[in-house]
C-alpha cells in the first residue's frame, strides 16, 4: 500500500534557527530526520508497506535489516540514473549497478557485491545500447 504520512516525531531532528530560514536547494538538502533519504521538507514521506503474506522474501529482507540496523526502512525507488531509461532487465540492472556508487545489488535471490565484481572491460553508451525503436 502506498500512502503519504508524517515521519514519526522520534525520527525527526530539530532544525536550528539557521536551518529553518533556508530557501531553495539549501532547504531541500537540509537533513530533517534519521532517514533523510525519504523525509520531505514538510516531514512527510511516501510510504509503501509490505506484509509477510504479500511478499515473504522482501518482508524478511526488511525485517533482517531492521534487526541489524534498528530501522525497518528500505528505500525503494525507480532504478535508473538521471537521463537514462529505467532498468528493465537483469543485464541493464547489472550495468547500471556497475556504473554507479551502489555497493550491493539484490537481484531476485542473488546479492551482488560491487567489490567482488571485475570492472567493466569496455563501458558502453547506455542511451545507444538500450534505445527503444
User: In whole angstroms, how far apart are the ends?
Assistant: 34 Å
Helix segment tally: 5
Estimated radius of gyration? 18 Å
Global structural class = alpha+beta
Number of strands: 4
**Topology order in helix (H) and strand (E) letters:** EHHEHHEEH
Q: What spatial order of strands do you see in the largest sheet? A: 1-2
Q: What are the low-pLDDT stretches, counting only 5+ consecutive residues below 50?
A: none
Q: How would a textbook summarize the main sheet?
A: 2 strands, antiparallel
General form: globular
Helix content: 25-40%
User: What's the overall average pLDDT, rounded?
Assistant: 86
Strand content: 5-15%
Detail the topology: elements first, then pairings:
Blueprint: E1 2-6, H1 17-20, H2 24-28, E2 44-48, H3 56-69, H4 90-99, E3 104-107, E4 110-113, H5 126-129
Antiparallel strand pairs: 1-2, 3-4
Provide a descriptive summary of the structure in words.
- With 133 residues, the chain is of the alpha+beta class.
- It is 28% helix and 14% strand.
- The protein is built from 5 helices and 4 strands; from the N terminus they run βααβααββα.
- The strands form 2 sheets. A two-stranded antiparallel sheet has the order 1-2. Strands 3-4 form a two-stranded antiparallel sheet.
- The longest helix is centred in the middle third of the chain and has 14 residues, at 56-69.
Name a few traits of the molecule.
single chain, two-stranded antiparallel sheet, 133 residues, 5 helices, alpha+beta
Summarize the structure.
By secondary structure, the protein is an alpha+beta fold.
